[in-house]
Amino acid sequence: MSANSDLNIDYLANLARLALTGMEREKFARQLGDILHYVEKLKQVDVTGVEPMAHASPVFNVWQEDTARPGLSVEDALRNAPAQRQHMIVVPKVVE
Amino acid sequence: MKYEAVIGLEVHVQLRTKSKMFTRVAAGYGEPESTLVDPVVLALPGALPVMNKEALDKIIKAGLILGCEIAAVCKWDRKNYFYPDSPKNYQISQYDQPLCIGGAVEIELPGAARNVMGEHKQIPLTRIHLEEDVGKLNHGASDSLVDYNRAGTPLMEIVTDPALASADEAYALLTSLRIALVQGGISDCDMEKGQMRCDANISIRPVGETKLGTKVELKNLNSISFVRDGIAHEIRRQLAVKENGGTIVQETRDFDGQTGTSQSLRSKEMAHDYRYFPDPDLMPVNVDDAWKASIRATVPEHHFDRQRRFMADYQLPYTITSVLVPDRALADTFEATAKLGAAPQAAANWIANDLLRELARSDVGRGLSPTDGLATCKIQPAHIAGLVKLVESGVISNSIAKEVFVTMFQSGELPDVIVEKQGLKQSTDTGELAKWVTDAIAANPRAVAEFKTGNEKALNAIKGAVMKASAGKANPKLVDEITRKLIG
Amino acid sequence: MADDLIYLPAARLAELLGSGKLSSSELVQSCLARTKAVDGRVKAFNSYDETGALALAQASDQRRAAGQARGPLDGIPVGFKDVIAVAGQPLTCSSKMLANYISPYDATVTVKLKAAGAIPFGRLNMDEFAMGSSTENSAFGPTANPWDLSRVPGGSSGGSAAAVAAGEMPVSLGSDTGGSIRQPAALCGVVGLKPTYGLVSRYGLAAYASSLDQIGTMARTVEDAALVLGVIAGHDPRDSTSFKADVPDYRAELGRRKGPWRLGVPKEFFGAGLDPEVGAAVRAAIEHYRQAGCEIREVSLPLAAEYAIAVYYLIATAEASSNLARYDGVRYGHRSTKAKDVVDLYFQSRAEGFGDEVKRRIILGTHVLSSGYYDAYYLRAQKVRTLIRNEFTAVLRECDALLSPTSPTAAFKIGEKSSDPLAMYLTDIYTISVNLAGLPGISVPCGFTGGGLPIGLQLIGRPFDEAGLLAIARHYEQAHAWHTQHPSLS
Predict the structure, then answer these.
(1) Which chains touch A (3 or more CB pairs under 8 A)?
(2) Searching chain B, which residue's CA lies closest to the CA of residue A58?
(3) How far apart are CA C315 and CA C303, in angstroms?
């Protein structure tokens, strides 16, 4: 486990697409530092040979057969859209 | 210094399913905007994914066709990145436990001539995994429009080893892969519809060097020809950089097939940290032997194996097998025709020439692949086999047979019925033949004279006149005999 | 009649409706009147649908008149935590991000409740995106504890607990990721049930931490909780994590299961940090079971007690960082008007749309999953989670259920812990491990502090043994009158 100073708030805010103010950066870095310090205690646990638990109960092959059913109406699909045109979502120009 | 190119491909193939990868709203192409969406596709709050069994069947089948090892257990991971075409801002994919591992694509390189089979090679695959497609961005002058109809379509990513040496090999790989996947019913692989898409990683290195050079990723190669052109262009570009003493920069480039140029996509070069982790909303997949066996039973013969068999078992020439074999229904039709006892060469010719020509001309087959055309057309193997036998046994001539073919393609009647109805049987009535020959001799005194001086070819004019008079029904062999007798 | 109704259990209301002594319209009018009278102070609701609820009540009355009532919940209003989708109603998650969002579809629990004739009455306040333990992290302001309006109702399902405690709703739905149903139930003096992970479909529950989230119910009595659970439980093909378990008639099972039971008391759940008054009340409850002939065993859950919170904050934030990526201002939700380009649209919309706690957890979760840290944090946390589950499995092999406090303290003051996230996280110390192990848990009222604040007893059961867990809880409830006491709200 890594030291608290490893928490690179700018890098993380960029990955998470969150614009932070200077004050937020400072405050979150401190608070998250405390939490990371707290979770350091997990280092004490011997996890040799232990399987990670991704699900509460280990069930396999949960699927549905391939049959198509109706989706949302166009109206419902776009009712919460902040901006739309020609039945599509409008976003600022994407430069690829 | 002499350089060689090393190319690896990442091929994305949409699976042919009725519904999407993780929800049961319909999947499709060309539908009106925002009509193939539901809460899961749009990533509305509370929506949850559920796997599509058919998509799993199809990728396992693809893996078996390509000789991959099918993982006993695979899981789903989230690949986290923000992009407007990605509704959840993560893509459900398979990171460290793909469904198919290894395998290879057999390719055929161009032969020395059109009628000579080229060299075959196995290009090893790294892996194949299943994921979901993203939506489609339409760029306007001042903004972009996003349609999510495509989002969530089952998408298979096939990754080759960096094992291709040229643009031609890449072209051959995609050609062979497409045939194999279409014949397996896995995808329609229509690149124009985005059902098959290809990115290429290209590097060059001095011959003899074992380390890979700096790779450049080439994107937006949206036809098989553009893949070849784009890779060839990129290899030339990298060679030119080296020749001018420059260094290759690791980057992503966009190839424009129309202009044959490429440009760097700087915006895609942000360092990626996808933060893969197992998707807690989906359970893992366990592929047991029984499941694999049931899919293996549906795997068709590989097209190259079939081609080799057609050449060996039916003595077909390479050229005609390379017409028949890429289309499964066409090859099936041939084989069924041959099994009905028709002479294979003749059957193959009828299918590769007349049947394809009529399909292309007809309303049912125009613009379709032979498979799709054949599905609706009236010609069955029995038609072709019947026709071959009628010609073989001398009941009709080859030229009459050509007309019978057109008739039966349109009506669906069997050839002997048509021949009977229209009275097209070859005449073997020697009395009738003698009359036609006598008339022809009388009408062509010059030809008779020339024949008598030893010009064998002069006889053709007389025979031609007989055929014309008989409307093609005269048996050519008998006409020859009678003519010689009457002149001699 | 209205005032007599407000604290009646749902089962009693169902009887009155069934016998024709009460109409659903009258009941809904009563709830509306009570809500209008007290919610200005309690602030349990983000919104409610007066017209819609009355129309559904009328339809229910017509069904009943025609002899087509759909069961005990027909005509009974239900409050929804504002994180569970009801078609045509707001789904805000108490976030500015979704302040104007209307769900176009029903959650599976909504479908089931509607099919049973229940009336989705309104949207209950919560910590933003269910992240918190006090309902102070709501973009629309905190909910107050009906027992002391200067105190928190707990969280994140604070509105769900407060609405039932204040007599606004007979029952409500909440969601529980680390204690978010049980802890507010304890702090508000109501029953709060978190079912086994996988028993109730999560389809339509805006996800916080997918491997931990579970929808459950708040009620005045254990019987009411059984009634609601019977309707919302069951396999759902739209939720891959939903389990194909049998759904018994939980209410009928209450009468059939009489004990005595073998009950475990995890000694680590009575250590430092436990308020003495809370400890005393819980010990008295344990004594009740001993007197009733139950075998009380001291058991040990050392890993759960020591590491559950650390494991939880790594797993939950990691999942949340990914689950909440969809809130980007593109397809729905808050879109910033200040964005320079499409990338900036994400940065600004999310900065403006999310509150502090959500941002903190997204950043923490992003860190936990980021390149180079995954193994040390996320993978290790998942392994310790396995060990914690194994610990519970071993203990529950010998015990029918475990008994503990629900929360280490009674309701704290609004603002008391809001500046110290870690202190807030520690209030979930007894509930969080239950989510990690995927087990069912219930909180039932077991007394009051000297200051008149409710105290909750937590019972933890075996996976999918809600019938047993409810029966054990009901045994205590029937012998006590805590649940019949109500806040004065004066």
Answers:
(1) B, C
(2) B283
(3) 16
Q: A80, C389: Cβ pair inside 8 Å?
A: no
In tens, the pLDDT along C286-337 reads: 999 999 999 999 999 999 999 999 999 999 999 999 999 999 999 999 999 9
What domain range is C150 assigned to?
A: 2-299+391-484
The angle formed by the CA atoms of residues C365, B89 and B9, to the nearest 5 degrees, is 110
Which residue carries 């017209």 as its tokens? C51
Domain ranges of chain B: 3-292, 303-422, 430-487
Please, which chains are in contact with C (at least 3 CB pairs closer than 8 A)?
A, B
Query: Of the candidates B104, B159, B162, B167, which has an alpha carbon nearest to the alpha carbon of residue B128?
Result: B159
Annotated catalytic sites of C, by residue? 81, 156, 180
- Which residues in chain A have their CB less than 8 angstroms from residue C366's CB? 12, 15-16
Would you say residue C453 lies in a domain? yes
**Residue C280 confidence (pLDDT) above 50:** yes
Instruction: Tell me, yes or no, whether C83 lies in a domain.
Output: yes
Task: Look at residue B228 and give its three-state secondary structure.
Answer: helix
Q: Is 0.90 topped by the overall pTM?
A: yes
Q: B-chain residues within 8 Å CB-CB of C200?
A: none
Please, where are the H alpha helices in B195-342? 224-243, 289-296, 303-313, 318-324, 328-339
- Token pair 């919309």 is found at C349
Distance CA C155, CA C185 (A): 9
Chain A residues within an 8 Å CB radius of C100: 80
- Structure-block tokens of residue C405: 């406090």
Query: What's the domain count of chain C?
Result: 1
A2: confidence class by pLDDT, cuts 50, 70, 90? very low
- Interface membership of C104 toward B (CB under 8 Å): yes
Select from B24, B33, B38 the Cβ nearest to the Cβ of A67: B24
Distance, in Å, from the CA atom of C111 to the CA atom of B11, rounded to the nearest integer, reads 42
Q: What is the CATH number of the domain that holds C120?
A: 3.90.1300.10
Q: Is the CB of residue A85 less than 8 Å away from at least one CB of chain B?
A: yes
- Residue to substitute from B33, B81, B82, B272, interface A, most A β-carbons within 10 A: B33
Scored b (16 or more CB within 10 A) or e, B284-307 reads bbebeeebbeebeeebbebbbebb
> For C414-439, what is the mean pLDDT?
92
Condensed to tens digits (0 to 9), the pLDDT of residues A21-40 reads 999 999 999 999 999 999 99
Q: Which ipTM did the prediction report?
A: 0.97
Reported as a pLDDT band with limits 50, 70 and 90, residue B483 is confident
Number of H helices, E strands in chain B: 17, 18
Query: Cα–Cα distance between B356 and B245 in angstroms, integer?
Result: 53
Dump pLDDT digits (tens) for B61-72.
999 999 999 999
- pLDDT confidence of residue C3: 60
> B431 — contact with chain A (CB < 8 Å)?
no
Q: Which residue's entry shows tokens 């333990």?
A: C133
Angstrom distance (rounded) from CA C334 to CA C367: 25
Q: Does domain B430-487 have CATH number 1.10.10.410?
A: yes
Residues B52, B268 contacting (CB under 8 angstroms): no
CB contact under 8 A, A35 and C422: yes
Contact A62/C240, CB-based, under 8 Å?
Answer: yes
- Note whether residue C69 is domain-resident: yes
Partner C contacted by B42 (CB < 8 A):
yes
φ/ψ (deg, to 5) at B397: -85, 165
- In chain C, what residues touch A51 (CB-CB under 8 Å)? 383, 386
Distance CA B466, CA B444 (A): 11
List beta partners, residue C192.
C218, C443
Whether residue A66 and residue B26 make contact (CB cut-off 8 A), yes or no, is no
**What whole-number distance in Å separates Cα of residue C83 and Cα of residue C94?**
8
The verdict on A66 touching B (C-beta cutoff 8 Å) is: yes
Question: Is residue C380 included in any domain, yes or no?
Answer: no
